[in-house]
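Field: COMPLEX_INPUT
Field: COMPONENT_COUNT = two
Field: RESIDUE_TOTAL = 225
Field: MODE = joint
Values follow.
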Amino acid sequence: MNIFRLAGDMTHLASVLVLLLKIHTIKSCAGISLKTQELYAIVFATRYLDIFTDFISLYNTIMKLIFLGSSFSIVWYIRQHKIVRRSYDKDQDTFRYVFIVLPCIFLALIINEKFTFKEVMWTFSLYLEAVAILPQLVLLQRTRNIDNLTGQYVFLLGAYRALYILNWIYRYFTEPHYIHWIPWIAGIVQTLLYGDFFYYYFHSWKNNKKLQLPA
Amino acid sequence: EKQDSGKDEL
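Field: COMPLEX_OUTPUT
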């Protein structure tokens, strides 16, 4: 465990918990894409298949349980909670699942480290995580403004990705045999997707005005 | 092990 990895995990944790707590407190999910949240729930469910079979550390197991619990709780709030679900704008959240999920299944089947069920599912989760933010970014573009909630959420997710890249660089130079092309490339693609968003985020922050994304 | 050295990541 290095400082980049720990900081990355903590910003990742913060992004999910901030979202969950805010939805719980303000009883609204306005501006949040249910599709992105469902894709993240699938990401955690397919990546952590080893949770009960391979013990890595107490930290690792607890974090996995928190990510699974919080991501499914967010989906439950948006779909089932009698007040929160009314604030979900289904008509704006139109990104099609198939355009994201099918290419990820296809890629995971042909490009993986080992052709076993667990390994293919793990690889699928990496590809899916890389693009799962797309429905949220499309929703942001469509509504053309983001409140603090959505802004902080996407900012924390972006920070998590950037810190993970630093973690990989650190581990590459400090650990023997630490080479993992699949998570690295998927992770870089995911980080690049945030780049565009960050430009506008910082721009609006610098000018101290509400963020407006271009059409 | 080489194959699993990154599986401790979340």
